Amino acid sequence: MTHSYRELVIGGVLIAPLLSYAVATIALIVILRPVLHLVGFSNWFSNPPIAELSLYVAIFGLLTLLF
Amino acid sequence: MTSAVDRRPISFAGLPLSSWAFAIRIWSAIVLALYISFWLELEAPSSAAVTVTILALPTRGQVLEKAVFRLIATVIGVAASITIIGLFVQTGSLLLIAFAAWLGICVYTAGLLDGNRAYAAALSGYTIAIIAVQQIDNPQHVFESALARGAAITVGVLTVAVVNDLLSAPDHHPQLTAQLEALRRRIADYARRILNGEAMPAMTAVGLLRDIVALRPEIASLAAELNSGPARSAAARNVMVGLVAELFAARSLEMLPAAAQLRLREQVIAQLDGKPGGLASPSDVSLLEYQAKDSEPVAASLSWLAKYLIRTDGEVRRTLGDLSAGRRPPRAWHAPLYRSHRISAETAVRAAVYFLLAAAFFALSGWSSTEVSLSFVAIIIALGATTPDLRALTVMAVVAAPIASLMAGILEFVVLDGATTFPLLAIGLAPFMIGAALLMTLPNRILSALGRLNLVFILLLLAPSNPQTYNPQTFLFSALFLVLATGLLFVAEIVIPPASNDRRRHWLLASVRRDLHRLPSHREQELAPEEAMFRDAGRVAQILAAGSDVPQHRPAMEEAMAIFDQAATLRLCQVELDRLAQGPLRTEVDAAYNSLVKRDPGAIIASAHALSEAASIRDVSVADASAALVLASVTFTSPRLDAEFSAERRS
Questions:
Q1: What value, to the nearest 5°, has the Cα angle with vertex B371 and ends B365 and B374?
Q2: C-alpha distances in angstroms, B60 versus B240, B486, B511?
Q3: Which residue from B minimizes the CA distance to A34?
Q4: Which residues of B touch A26 (CB under 8 A)?
Q5: DSSP assignment of B587-646, as one string?
Q6: Computed from CA positions of residues B359, B92, B46, B365, in that sequence, does the dihedral angle turn out positive or negative?
Q7: B55 and B48 in contact (C-beta within 8 Å)?
């Protein structure tokens, strides 16, 4: 089964689905940040920047898979 | 603790390992950005590499913040390009005037902001030069050109973010914490010397204020660092504002006669130094309070100030702890920036005129492909708005352009010389990119700026593409246009010089006096006294920047500092009086307000007495208000200027 991607259309300009997913992921990360700070996400890992990057990639992958 | 201080950074070839790591990170990011752009067959792959060089900053938070602003500013710049091209495409001269006006607006906005926000404003201005000016003869291609640039910038931003994460770019907060802690120690030392009866020159305080305020853009960029970033940024902001308030308290202690006779002097000093024997216990602080209530007015004011100093110092220490632990402080202070609309407007008008002069020159010359050179002019003008001195940047660009041309020429025609494989490009780029990035990390500001400009210019001139054309004519034209653009701007700045430092200083001092004249205002204050102090401190730093530390500028600096003290005292008085205004002492409070408006030291002292007497009848505590009024009366009679002159003569 092939996954069909819906393109975002703004004023007749087609926007690549990849871009919408990336922007949606950034929005989700911005919302998640205070929560992550509250639960002490950075303290669980020896290299928090890579953990945050992996989280970004995971959310991006999930969005692509589910929507 | 001492081992951390004694530990020397490991160095290689005379440069610390951290500088090498930074340079290699930049090179890897450039190579990766180029590889991805070639793979995606982007139209402007060199823009992705140039994005990396522009985002070449040593720590993650700074890079991420700048990247976000770069993306936002590109969107704004693209929208403006399409709109302006759409409106004025039929009329060439109007189109150029519209470009100049947009550039002026962006330079004006950049003048009102600082750090990466100012950069974003400048970028919105010069995006139009890259997209619209370069397509001035083919307006129908503006949209494609905008898309190509947007895609390339996105690739550049993502690459630099990923490379920084994977290669463990350092976080900024440990370094910032150390800098703020060092500043706190310097201020504690300043206060200690005042308590020991030393006369401190105003320039010492000005230097401290400048160093504190200079951290503002870095503190703002902390917010982008990890998920604890916003909390850390708020804590660091509180520290910065607290340090300015602490410095004000120390300076005010000097103004009050006989600061050296403060009864608890030793304890206050021990407290500031963080040694045992300080006023750690609440009973000692209440003793100060008791003393403040009981003794004669100046001593009471002195104790009140000492209490304010200790309280602020305690707050600074606590928030420094919050900063290292990544905790949000209970109360977040704003750190407002002083904005001079007049200076920004002057700079903006000049920016527009420089652009028009260059455009007129190219139009009259009748040469072909000069739009590339015009876009370079716009880029340097816009970036000049983010530095304190456009002239200095232009001179630096005039020097850097031929060096970069030579380097790019060697890279393209000697090192690569027709190579078509990607690994050869990556290896060829290494010495040039790593070398320029290493130059950037040097403490010498001229060499560092030269390194940054070279990093960007070499890539702009090489313009890596797939396949690389190796056309000597194209290269020569690009190099010529870059040198021509910098030279033309240099000449334009000689014809119409930027606003002189003397004028800037004059305007800033005039605004300082105007603001003091408005105090105390009966309206509710928008900012807490400490926040307003920080804004004033920013302006003092701007006055210092508009003139080097030479003896003939000292009177202006001393006046600025004296007004800084007076304004801060008046604001503290206002807070204390407003607290009493709702109570039974309204008549006395109004009298105190009037005496403050008149700036009459005798009347201010009399109003403080009247307030105390009325309070003793009505059983209200007015110790703080009365102490603040006494300080205000001393501030307006203080022979500080004379004392500072004599102190400087002695030193």
A1: 85
A2: 21, 32, 37
A3: B227
A4: none
A5: HHHHHHHHHHHHT-HHHHHHHHHHHHHHHHHHT---HHHHHHHHHHHHHHH--HHHHHHH
A6: negative
A7: no
- Angle (nearest 5°) at CA B566 between B299 and B594: 85
Distance, CA of B277 to CA of B279 (rounded, Å): 7
The per-residue pLDDT for range B269-290, each reduced to its tens digit, is 777 777 655 555 544 555 555 5
B389: phi > 0 → left, psi -120 to 50 → alpha, else beta; which?
A: beta
Residue among B165, B227, B231 whose CB faces A41 most closely: B227
> Any alpha helices (H) in B113-228, and if so which ranges?
115-128, 142-166, 173-195, 202-213, 216-221
- 3-state SS of B213-258 is HCCHHHHHHHHHCCCCHHHHHHHHHHHHHHHHHHHHHHHHHHHCCC
Chain B residue whose CA is closest to A29 = B227
Whole-structure pTM value: 0.85
DSSP H or E segment with residue B285: helix B282-294
- Flag whether the ipTM exceeds 0.90: no
Phi, psi of A14, rounded to the nearest 5 degrees? -80, 130
Contact B165 A33 (CB under 8 A): no
Model pLDDT, residue B241 = 93
Which residues, 6 or more positions from B495, have their beta carbon under 8 angstroms from its beta carbon? B357
CA nearest to B540, candidates B200, B113, B204 = B204
Measured distance CA(B274)–CA(B293) in Å, rounded: 27
Query: Which run of H or of E encompasses B304?
Result: helix B297-325
User: Chain A 26-65, CB below 8 Å of chain B: which residues?
Assistant: 32-34, 36-37, 41-42, 47-50, 52-53
Token pair 């006023």 in the structure block, residue: B279
The helix/strand/coil state of B528 is coil
Contacts of B164 in chain A (CB under 8 A): 49
Q: Of B45-54, B86-95, B521-530, which has the strongest mean pLDDT?
A: B45-54
Lowest mean per-residue pLDDT among A9-13, B83-87, B354-358, B400-404? A9-13
Give, in order, the Cα–Cα distances in Å from B446 to each of B158, B249, B397, B404, B409: 30, 37, 11, 15, 23
Distance CA B123, CA B397 (A): 17
The phi, psi pair for B195, rounded to 5°, reads -65, -25
